[in-house]
User: Fold these one by one.
Assistant:
Number 1:
Amino acid sequence: TGMFTYDPGFTATGSCASTITYIDGDKGQLLYRGYKIEDLAEHSTFIEVCYLMIYGVLPSAKELNAFEELVVSEMMVHEKIVDFYKGFQSDAHPMAIMVGVIGALSAFMHEEFDVNDPRDREHIAIKLVAKFPTLAAFAFRTASGLPLVRPKKKYNYIQNFLYMMLANPMDDDFDINPVVVEAIDTIFLLHADHEQNASSSTVRIAGSSLSNPFACVAAGIASLWGPMHGGANEAVLYMLEQIGSPDNIEKCINMAKDKTSGFRLMGFGHRVYKNFDPRSRVMQKMCYKVLEVTGKDTMPLLDIAIKLEQKALQDPYFIDRKLYPNVDFYTGLVYKALDIPVNMFTVMFAIARSIGWITQWSEMMAEGLNKIGRPRQLYVGPPVREFVKIEDRQ
Ligand code: CMC
């Protein structure tokens, strides 16, 4: 049967070659197409990063404007897709809705695309990134029993998302706080891609059978949902709320160290970063900035988060295992301060990661290798056994 390496969790397996994202886990370095995440977070925007991902280069101001206009013009979705939302229970988690409706996009966009044509792949990427916030906002409004709100040309990409999610249809105007827009833009930028994480690998494996790209992205959303991956931002917030007071931090840390508890410190640890996560530094800074301007009432949670981080970083358990706060340790706090509903945290991670998923899918298709993703296994079941007919069994 040939030789293969046994590598559960793929800790030492390179599954593809890629030109999109570079991570040096020891140095705490993250690059998108060669540009440092810190520089992009300071000077760029999520939409500019989408351009960079799709085209491989930074746009001129004119190109960027035209690109954002194009993306915004694609934010509307087929009205038929609205019917899907009617089938969900009112308490459905918005991530559950997203798995369904993004997968359903494959029913609306299938035959007209040639996945081997680079121009078509560019359009697929633009349509996915454009429609994602609309479908996400609809998911939230369905779960809250609110009427749906359609995108508007006068708003940019991030503003449109906030407008569709939070606007009260009875008000004439929607007041969009620029600090909120900037913070969300930066969070999206930080989450845009992260090389071969579980959800991106899922999208690649699904796509390797030459399947519909929107259906493949639905598989990625399913993978992202769990608390060990994108679900961590939501889990961090619940954890901090449960801790409730700095007095309970020690108890929480002890529980995380106890393997029989089944509990892990949410927002801590990373498969690749073993020194620090550069995204979490940007997030921590932003957390202070946002709380200064808006969410003073979230301050006690930030206080618990900072003390928890300090305590954990001094504990030999976390030092020995090189466990540091990851990007999502502070994301939930910022979202909370911005009054973003908690069950939307992971959905917002998915919006941001949509560009990474689809760019990686496109890169794989461009290679034209047509190599299906097909890991092997170590069989540990019974050896060949004699079959006993049902009437002869005891
Ligand atoms: N709390 C307590 N112990 C931990 C934690 C934690 N958060 N993370 C890892 N460990 C321990 C783990 O029990 C193991 O101990 P031992 O060697 O004694 O068995 C050791 O550290 C190595 O952990 P691992 O599970 O082998 O590491 P991994 O690379 O497979 O997992 C991880 C990485 C992120 C899934 C994990 O650290 C974790 O579950 N963290 C909490 C969830 C979280 O914050 N996830 C978000 C990740 S960043 C955003 C994203 O990419 O989605």
Note: The pocket of carboxymethyl coenzyme *A is lined by residues 9, 194, 197, 228-230, 232, 256, 264-271, 321, 323, 326-328 (CB under 6 Å).
Number 2:
Amino acid sequence: VFDEVCETTGVTLKRFMSEVAMLNPDITELTVLFGAIETACKAISNLVKRSQLPSSETLGYQGEVNVQGEDQKKLDVITNDLLKRALRFTGRLGVLASEEEDVPVDLSGANKGVLIDEGERYVAVFDPLDGSSNVDAGIPTGTIIGIYEHDENCAIDPDCVGEDCTEQEAQCLANTLQPGTNLVAAAYCLYSSSTFLVLTLGSGTYGFTLDENLGEFVLSHPDIKIPEESSIISFNEANTPNWDKPLQETVAKWKAGKGKSGKKFSSRYIGSMVGDVHRTLLYGGVFGYPGDKKNPNGKLRLLYEGAPMSFIVEQAGGLSTTGKERVMEISPEVVHQRVPVIMGSKNDVQEVIDAYAAAQ
Ligand code: P6P
């Protein structure tokens, strides 16, 4: 399917999606969502680029603390509202979860008796502005989005009363707690030297670059394939002493040129997941935020960071593991659950997996 669409780069995202929908009618609804995602990414790119101007309304802190216990920047709140609105007005979403929302948001109007009709068949999970603490220093930031099918049996009984309703609403909202293997699409927008939108619909990973003269995302990286092996590690190495031994030993070998490939690794770490993963996809490498003694599940969130990014990396031929299991196979118990993540070039990540297995 995608090869036919990708015989020429320069195809706009809109044309890419309409041709994919023509060739795959069953995902037409899904392509509608990408119209909203594209618009939101352009708007957020603009906000980020202008955020440091003295006249900007988006400078500084909101004065609130989010469920993560992080000071919310005005930009966190604005980008979250922008993305929620854009997705809501597609009429295709039943429920969404966001890093900036304490609990999932029911978009079916939360009215009793509202069946999740086939129009509202999707669930969106997202981090509206990952790495936002970097914005003031002009360091790359990004938006991460995952799309699941909604359980259409989820409905709120018109005659429900009290506890019963809460129970049913909870069931509907629990539809966000799906493993990465249920993802039907994932995307990230990277706000950096260029604005990129990288996506997968489950048949490969495709990269688009915003042509600001046209105001359109154009296909610039058709069918991205991550190099199978690399010589770049991308971790916050201040945490090395607390890592699991298998990872400590593997990374030490890579640094000494004594790993499987014999290559001597260098280190590249932006401290902004979307930028680090994008470079890893294009240049190869191993990006990670592993668990450690202090935080056994690391720092990144499974639902709207680990799983969608793992889907994109796997669809580009890479691997994504906690060290002990595939990130995409983990079913979240709570919305903001953390997960250890080691992802990137297949052969290198496999070396970490083997080191963990040998240590069992
Ligand atoms: P540290 C940004 O705050 C973020 O959530 C990810 O984008 C990034 O990979 C990670 O945290 C960086 O964390 O502890 O290295 O600053």
Note: The pocket of 6-O-phosphono-alpha-D-fructofuranose is lined by residues 130-131, 133, 236, 271-273, 289, 299 (CB under 6 Å).
